[in-house]
Structures are given as C-alpha cells and as structure tokens.
Amino acid sequence: MADAEELLRELARRHGVATWFWGWGGSRQEVGAGTLRSVLGALGVPTDTPEAMRQALQDSELAPWRRLLPAVTVVREGADAQVLAHVPHGSRVSVWVVAEDGREHPARQVENHDEARTVDGVLTGRAAFLLPQDLPLGWHTLHARGDGLAAEAPLVVTPQALSTTGRLEDSQRWGLMAQLYSVRSQRSWGVGDLGDLADLAAVGAEQGADFVLVNPLHAAEPKPPLEDSPYLPTTRRFVNPLYLRVEDIAEFAYLPPAERSRVEELGRALQPANSSSELLDRDAAYAAKLEALDLVWRVPRSPAREHAYARFRAEAGRGLEDFARWCVLAAGREDGADFYRWLQWVCDEQLASAHRTALGAGMQIGLIHDLAVGVRPDGADGWALSDVLAAGVTVGAPPDMFNQQGQNWSQPPWHPQRLAESGYAAYRDMLRTILRHAGGIRVDHILGLFRLWWIPEGHAPGEGTYVHYDHEALVGILALEAQRAGAVVIGEDLGVFEPWVRDYLAERGILGTSILWFEYDGDRPLAPEAYRRACLTSVNTHDLPPTAGYLAGEHVRLRESLGLLERPVSEELEAARAEIDGVVGLLRERGLLPEGADLADEQRVIEALYRLITFTPSCLLGVALVDAVGERRTQNQPGTYREHPNWRIPLTDAEGAAVLIEELPDHERFASLLAAVRESLAQRAAGRQGGSTDE
C-alpha cells in the first residue's frame, strides 16, 4: 500500500498536481489520495494499479523522446533558447525557423552530452539547436528534417516585457469601473448596452477619466433563459448580443415601416424598467432584442456593408463558424447560422465605436475589457474546445477568509498538456478577439495562468488541489497579443499565491491589482506609499459590497444570512469593525478625515478613502461607479448561486433610486467624488514638481 501511495504522489508531482498546499490559516494541508486519483484521471493518467502507475511514470519520462520536435516552443525575444530534436542515434538532422513573414532563419546545432536511450525499441539520440536571437515577435513555425524524418511545430516569440506598460510611467491615471448591464440610460432596453458604454466613456472622459473598466462581455446562451453571471459565459471568445443597441445598427434605418414600428414597440415596452430599482431581467430584455434583431438582420445590406461583413467572417475564421453552429443547435433555429455570425459582426462594430468614442473624448487608454477565468461546461466552448478542456473536474478556490467553505466556479479548466499540444491556438484566438477593440484587458484570477484549483466532480470545494500550468507560455502569449493590440494588461492577483508570482508578472510588464481593504503590513493597513507602482489600485471590487455597504458591515451580515461563516457573526463583525477602524485611523493620520468625523457621514469617508489611494504610486486608480453614486447593495457574493441575486443589481443611489447615465453629469455625489480624486492627484503632482516629498 505504501508503495502504491508513493507511486501516486510521484505521478502527481510529475504531472504538475500538488500533493499538499498551505491552507488559509497557515497550516499545511495534505491532498487526499481520492482527489489525486480523480485529478490525474481528468488528465488522462491511469492510477488503477501500481503497474499502471509505473508505466505512466515511464511514459511521462519518454514523452519528449518520442517527438522529433516539441509540440510547441515558447521563448522570449532576444533570449538564448535551445530546441531539442530526437532522432535515431547517429542520424543527421537540421532545424530552421520559418517566420510569419515567410523568411527562413537557420538554427545552429550545439554540443549536447545527453546519452542516447532506447525508446520503443529504437536507440534514440538528442540533438540541441540554438535558436537565432534576432527572431521577431510573433507566431512562427519550427521545422526539422533528417534521414527520412520531418516535423514542424509552432514557435512563439514573446516580449521580454510588455512595452505598452511603459506609457503609464509619466503620471497616474484614473478611470471608472462599472458593471455595464447595470448602467442604463433612457435609451436602454432595461439592461445597459454598448451605446450606454460609449456614453459612459464620454461622461467619464469629461471628468478626466482615462479608461472605463467593464465586466466581461462574453457571450451567454443564444436564447433565454440567460446565465446572470458574466463570469460564467458560454464562450470567452465572442460577445453577448444582449449588449447590442438595436437602433445603432446601420440597417435599422432601412427597416420597412411595419417592422420599424414593431422594433420601436419592443423598445418602448422595456424602457420603464430603466428607471426601476428592481432586479434586472435579462431574459425579458434579450427576448425582445432577439425579435428586433431578427428583423434588422433581414434588411438587405449595401455592397460596402456586405464586404465589411465578409471580411469580418474571414478574419474570425473557423471559430466563428463553430460558435454559430453551436448557437443553432442550442437555440433550435434551423436558419440561424448566418444570424448568429451577423450578431457577432454588429457586436464587433459597436465595440469598435465605443472604444473610438472613449479615445475621441480624450481618454488615453479607453475601454478595458475583463477576461473571465473560464466557461460553463455545457456551452459553446465546452462543445467546440472539448479537446483542450479537462472533463470530470471544475475550477474554484480553496477555503479562505472571505469564503470559508471554498468556492466552486463550475468551469472546466484548460487541459495543460492538450492545450500545449494544440499550440495554444484556442487561447491565442480568444485573446485576439477580446483585444480587437481595447486599450487594456483585466485578467480575472491571473494566478490561474500559474495554477488552478481543480475540484473533482462530486467533491466539496475544499476537497480539490492545485494543478500547475506552463506560466512562461501562457503569460508570454498574453503579453505578445496585448503588445500587438497596443493594450495594457492588468492581472487580478488577489488571493493565495506564491511570493515570486507578483515579481514575475511585474518583470513581464503585467500590472497587478491592489484593493485598499486587502493591503496590510502585519496587523496595520499598508501605508499608501508602500503600494506597488505597476498596479491598478482601488478602494472596492465587485466581490465586495459597495464601500457604503462595506463601512456598515453588510458583507458580514450577508455572509451570515447565507450560512457562509465558520465562526460566530459577532466575532466576524468585531473583526470587520477593527479592520475599518484601522483604515479610518490611517485617514485621520493623513489629515484626510477630521477626528470628529462620524462614519455615518459615508460620503465624506468614501471621498477620503479615494483621496488616500491617490497617495499611492500606483500608475492606475479605479473609481467604482457604485461608490460614486452611493449604491449599497452587493453585486456578487462569491460562493453563492441562487441564494443571492448575484449580477442582477441595477445602479442606484444612496436612497435606492435608479441612476441613469444622462443624470451622471449633474449628479452631485458623482461629481464630488470625481472632483476629490482629480484635486488630490493635481495637488500631489504639483507637490512633486515643486520638489516636496510625501509625508
């Protein structure tokens, strides 16, 4: 039995599966044998018998020797990088690179003293080749040929560091953070849309904002009912047509009178919902939009528009065709393939327009999109990308201080080996689509590019383990695609991680994330001057209540009502009060809040908190729109599904009244908070220019 247990754990280590981890209380937790067997099974590694495990260990050792070339090679620009070629011992082999532009670059063979070994009955040698250091950034092809053998494989040259980050070094920039579906206007159909996004960007730019960071806009189901969570999409590559502004599609102007009247009628029926503070109804909005969009789709397109549509389809390639085919199957609409392709084209057009509006209004970055961790298992990606997703497991998070029972996000993870063997094509294509019309991308749980918490089916969230990924490849490809798009990258690097991870991301030019409530130096709030520079810093995040609610301890009461606490609510409230008192004490030390100021004056405290983050060196500062208008309700409570109305809270003010985009320019609280941020940044900039130092 001991032998089988050790074989199991060695096999897990060989395949990047953690056999232990540090729990959130600081204790070492051993991973159970049942979890290891299930996770290895999801990786396709047999664990039934000791003999099977010994064979699996041998197979993992011989796997690279069985290939003439590696399945994929990812290197950094200008680095000394070797490629190993495997051929029958004594055979000659040559290796070269064909770059994206068609030029050939020979690789130089160098000495290699690895001994030949017998592989499947053939004595096999290993030849080492040094890749040219002057290879350009991009996706190239590695070739090998010798003695009747030939092979080719992808070669990806990535930036040493993302160069777009350098443009943020001259000054601090701030922007708005918003859940787009919750931000409505008089023209919305009950849910915020891409027209609203353009207007929000224009309003923010007028106030001095340089970006708008929005929730993931990934596609959901092709027909109602829709999944409410933007972080549980059906695909991460394509856009949710729920966000379309029907009236902004060019062909809307050419609808026949009867059809135009019907579209206008559909819109009018939903407009009263824009001013309601009740929960959002995505299904009603999407059902009406689908009917209207079907009418607009049937309008003949001009030759120029037809050409633009054809070009979009050609650029999107097979991925778009697969997605449209899945939509047809899922929606049961026989004539719908072109309809679903067309929806993505008009989504793309409206995203492009919103980004142009942001930049044209004066924003230096524009739209920052959010990339969810994964997709739902029964969606389009689960169907089309099943060859590179792992089955029988989902991803989530181990127990931590904010969810003491752990979390199951119900998403299948990338299969590390199969994704690499595919040349990371699906990952690359996903990034390219999201970055088409963006000045930046926020990567939710970027730690997942290093390791993900895998939970076997039928197990509790705490009964999982970490599976490690080739972060050099995943982070490198992210940097490459962002650099080509001229975009910055923000990694949401909160939670449990190894200390070197943040240093590595900074080295690659990836910005981190700091949330005021999470930054500590021992048992004291971290001094703002000690924050990271390469970072997006904010007071709030969508997984916490708006700051007004947080100051009142509503995050504790909500978790208590949902049964998510592992200790008495009185202890949790006491800890929350101590945390808030510590931060308020820092505000008073810095002269941002008078001694006599009461926490009941929430607007004053919130403005002081945002002034505090301007004291950090962080290059980006995020202002949550909910904080700017006084919203109190929690948008999302992690670890819940139907227990709390996650992702259905519309934007409302301190009195619970809906706030529309048209009202923002004259909204007193909105203007006051943004003025406080601008003034504090201007004062600090003037102080630096005058040679003064921070306290």
Automatic annotation (TrEMBL):
Domain MalQ N-terminal beta-sandwich: 69-159
InterPro entries in the record: GH, Glyco_hydro_77, MalQ_N
Family assignment from sequence similarity: Belongs to the disproportionating enzyme family.
Known EC number: 2.4.1.25
Superkingdom of origin: Bacteria
Catalytic activity field: Transfers a segment of a (1->4)-alpha-D-glucan to a new position in an acceptor, which may be glucose or a (1->4)-alpha-D-glucan
Keyword Repeat: no
Keywords of the record: Carbohydrate metabolism, Glycosyltransferase, Transferase
Record bears the keyword Glycosyltransferase: yes
Record's protein name: 4-alpha-glucanotransferase
